């Protein structure tokens, strides 16, 4: 029987499948790419052919232009690619995000999870556990110290701050794709029905989510302090003159990394909100126990912690040592 390493292995461009002659989430332009989701550290422009979920393709077109690839194909069902079939399944990370399961004609089934989350997310389909012999997991928060709180608790913290400081704008940093829309949906679920201000860079992707049937309520583009008291902006906006238009704002930032106080201080964040679209330590290890693969491959993150856990649980594991994957570029 063919070994897993012969089905999929790392190359400088990314994970490569010689049986189908394609890459998964390549960081350099390639002839054929399968894309798990549309964050810019996984989805690059310039490939020859791109296979991804319909929503991922549409978001890539918004971000990069309609000609981001020479040819595109929306993933539906099992797709034959040479001597392997690929299928796409929800990852629970952002809208359109998918795990990719590879089914060779002979050999182990491999699931490339991409970035994934096990928390309920109102703006995307939930993670689907898949049977497989090899499971490739991210390790963004792959240490026992990372235990994310309930997002509803963090939203309540934001609303309390707005009550405590009613005369100060609350400017909350959130990535344009996924985090912004999830923040808005969480606020609406908590009963906040007032208009929410948006930095101009966030408008188009929010409009796309609305077009996909996701109710985000009343949103207003904000260019000055005359708009809503609650404003969401990309993190990069806080280092531009845009933020200087607001007098003494409360600066917040929504990220799993806000659980590290030093990171919050580094960014001069007064209101850190620990809201992540990645699995934390209990969710990561719980997923491995639930899926029960024969082998785990670990990528982009603190791989050593996950490898140690696997060793203690007698689960064969190895690091992929892929480079080029970071947080969503701003």
TrEMBL record:
Enzyme class: hydrolase
Lineage: Bacteria, Pseudomonadati, Pseudomonadota, Alphaproteobacteria, Rhodobacterales
EC number(s) stated in the UniProt entry for this protein: 3.1.-.-
UniProt-listed Gene3D superfamilies: 3.40.50.10890, Ribonuclease Z/Hydroxyacylglutathione hydrolase-like
Protein name: Ligase-associated DNA damage response exonuclease
Recorded superkingdom: Bacteria
A molecular function GO annotation: ligase activity
Source organism (scientific name): Paracoccus cavernae
Entry keyword set: Exonuclease, Hydrolase, Ligase, Nuclease
């Amino acid at each position: 029987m063919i070994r897993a390493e012969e089905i999929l292995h790392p190359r400088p461009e990314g994970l490569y499948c010689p049986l189908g002659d394609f890459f998964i989430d390549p960081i350099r332009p390639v002839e054929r790419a399968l894309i798990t989701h549309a964050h810019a550290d996984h989805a690059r422009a310039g490939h020859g052919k791109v296979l991804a979920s319909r929503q991922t393709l549409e978001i890539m077109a918004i971000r990069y232009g309609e000609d981001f690839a020479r040819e595109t194909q929306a993933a539906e069902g099992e797709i034959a690619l040479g001597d392997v079939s690929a299928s796409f399944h929800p990852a629970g990370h952002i809208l359109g995000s998918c795990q990719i399961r590879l089914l060779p004609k002979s050999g182990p089934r491999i699931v490339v999870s991409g970035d994934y989350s096990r928390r309920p997310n109102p703006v995307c389909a939930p993670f689907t556990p898949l049977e497989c012999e090899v499971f490739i997991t991210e390790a963004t928060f792959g240490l026992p110290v990372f235990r994310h709180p309930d997002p509803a608790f963090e939203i309540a913290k934001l609303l309390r701050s707005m009550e405590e400081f009613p005369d100060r704008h609350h400017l909350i940093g959130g990535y344009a794709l996924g985090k912004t829309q999830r923040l808005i949906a969480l606020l609406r679920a908590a009963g906040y029905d007032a208009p929410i201000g948006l930095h101009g860079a966030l408008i188009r992707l929010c409009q796309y989510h609305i077009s996909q049937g996701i109710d985000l309520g009343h949103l207003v583009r904000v260019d000055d302090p005359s708009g809503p008291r609650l404003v969401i902006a990309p993190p990069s906006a806080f280092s531009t003159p845009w933020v200087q238009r607001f007098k003494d704002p409360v600066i917040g930032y929504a990220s799993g990394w806000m659980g590290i106080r030093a990171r919050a201080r580094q960014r001069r964040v007064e209101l850190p909100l620990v809201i992540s679209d990645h699995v934390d330590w209990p969710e990561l290890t719980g997923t491995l126990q639930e899926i029960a693969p024969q082998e785990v491959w670990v990528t982009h993150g603190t791989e050593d912690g996950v490898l140690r856990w696997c060793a203690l649980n007698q689960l064969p594991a190895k690091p992929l040592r892929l480079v080029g994957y970071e947080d969503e570029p701003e």
